[in-house]
Task: structure prediction
Amino acid sequence: MRGLLRYLINNHVFLLFLFLEVVSLIFVFNFNKYQSVQYLNSSNRVAASVYNYFDSVVKYFELAKDNEILAKENARLKSQHSFLQNRSDSLGSGFVQHDTNYRYIPARIINNSVNKTLNYITLNKGSSDGVKPDMGIISPTGIVGVVISVSKSYSLGFSLLNSRWGPSGKLKKSGFFGPIEWSGGDYREANLMEIPFHVHLAVGDTIVTSGHSAVFPEGLLIGTVKEFSQPEGESFYKIKIQLATDFRSIHFVDIIDNIDKEELQKLESLIENGATNN
Amino acid sequence: MFIGLVLTQVLILNHIQFSGFVNPYIYILFVLLLPLNTPRYAVLIFAFLMGISIDIFSNSLGIHAFATVFIGYIRPLVIRVISSREEDMSDYPGLMQNGIGWFLSYVSIMVLVHHTVLFYLEVFTFAHFFSTLMRVFFSSVFSIFAIVLSQLIVFRD
Result:
């Protein structure tokens, strides 16, 4: 017993070293199970308010560009609005609006990175604004990411530039879909997987969200095909896509709340449970 | 100094990048410059706190903490190896106290070890071995440059 005690005292530095490294590794491997370490990311109050303050200074330098982007979106929405109004007029009172089950929460990005292998974005809206985990994040130019963790007035999300998360993308022309993956490297490019060889492809084809998950509505712009090849011995294309969103210059985003999500998930879990029971 | 380094790192240096992946980390300066008579357990604890602070800001929980504790542990070893016995070591491992040559080799070894551990833990695979090695190398060059430069600016006579 005394020997053990002496051993512990003599090696206390090494043991402390081991202990701290093990704690670090536990943090590394548990980061995604965000319930337990939810407060140790940049949506916590201290870190987020530092970013928020810094951003409130820096944002003035970007105002001209942000203005331009917002003005463009405004113009686009206006033209869309008048077009839709004409259409609904011509359709008469029988026209039923069917895509109203999404609610948009405007937010500002207060921290963002593009140079890691796992990139995250911190937003200045939180649970008190109605933000919940698993809501999609979009910018005026295309999709951005998904919320994973929420504090009272801030939230943290996976950026599309994060190899742990990718949306499902669809070729607008042919309707074939597959997962979008970002494997590190260039922040302007990602890969579209699982598109079989018999699909006709061309450089410049548009890729939009498939709408198969409850996170994003169907048809939001993801990017365009930049180049593709048919690797030998495989059955799927290797497709490189040019992302529509410039992740270095986005500041204003919308968080998408799917109002029917709970109902959808309930239905889906019902089916899954039913399938396993049979 | 602790808070200053954390803020410099997360607000300015984390947004610096050349050709996609190079990212200098100078916050380890805090661990490098702890006086030599600091108890070893205290060095480890300080290193852990520093690493976890950077982790919280950059959403990479545990990675920086691991790498920083690691260099905190090997610090006395590195100092012993690169200092000749006759040399009268100053208690403070700074640039002015021990000369540019000594400081440069001290910083280079520590930064290289730190970045190697950091980047390989971050990708957690040896699949992209060489691209990660390139990142380690170029980021290290920038970190060493930034650290030495900061010392020249702060401690000039």
Summary: Residues 63-91 of chain A form the longest helix (29 residues). Chain A is about 30% helix and 30% strand.
